[in-house]
Amino acid sequence: MAVTLNSSTSAGLVITSDTTGSMSLQSSGTTKIAITSTGAAIAGTNTNDSAAAGYVGEYVSSAVTATNYGATNVWGDLTSISLTAGDWDVTAVAFINVNGATMTYADTGISVTSGNSSTGLVFGDNYLEINAVPTFNTGISIPAYRISIASTTTVYLKYRAGYSAGGPPTAAGRLSARRVR
Fold first, then answer.
1. What are the pLDDT digits (tens) for 141-156?
2. Domain co-membership, 91 together with 15
3. Which of 49, 97, 179, 180 makes an SS bond possible with 170, Cβ 3.0 to 4.6 Å?
4. Which residues pair with 133 in a beta bridge?
5. Per-residue pLDDT tens for 5-24?
6. Within a domain: residue 82?
7. Which DSSP string do the residues of 18-84 spell out, in sequence order?
8. C-beta separation of 166 from 102 below 8 A
């Protein structure tokens, strides 16, 4: 037996269900949520605004400029974002300014571990390194990296460099995430 509440599709909400266990929620004639035995489809946004928090398409970001590196060979947190439970595609970009230092490498990573730690960093996945960057500025970009979390979690843009003579180098960067589900 199908059930319909408020059958006016021109205004208000319409909730329907059927004998298969499927259910949908409509607003002004547009399906916003469709639930079946295999999962739920949740509408994000179809214009140039931002999806609401908790919905598909939600966007979170943080950007910083001109942060000094700590001691050579020590991981630090360039910036961080707080993500709520769900499935996220997280991206990062960092710009390294040599600032008079002699550099041997620069690293950038995406991690849920803060401070001087490389826990969870996997080279080529959520962590990249540029070697032999002695006297020129450079950048590192990490494309979409999946983070699936069950509760609110802080995600960090990690950075580290090997350097001597002069400096310290500085870094700027952006950490951003888009909710996939």
1. 999 999 999 999 999 9
2. no
3. 97
4. none
5. 555 544 455 666 677 767 77
6. yes
7. -TTS-EEEEETTEEEEEEETTEEEE---SSSSPPPTTSTT-EEEEEEEEEEP-STT--EEEEEEEE-
8. yes
Same domain as 21, residue 108? no
How many whole angstroms separate alpha carbon 133 and alpha carbon 98? 8
Question: Within a 13 Å sphere around the CA of 16, how many CA atoms are in the beta-carbon half?
Answer: 15
Q: Which pair of structure tokens corresponds to residue 105?
A: 């490498």
Q: Are residues 104 and 16 in the same domain?
A: no
- Spatial CB neighbours of 48, under 8 Å, sequence gap ≥ 6: none
- The verdict on residue 50 lying in a domain is no
Half-sphere exposure of 148 (CA within 13 A, CB side): 1
What does the buried/exposed string (b/e) look like for 3-41 if buried means 16 or more CB atoms within 10 Å of the residue's CB?
eeeeeeeeeeebeeeeeeeeebbbeeeeeeeeeeeeeee
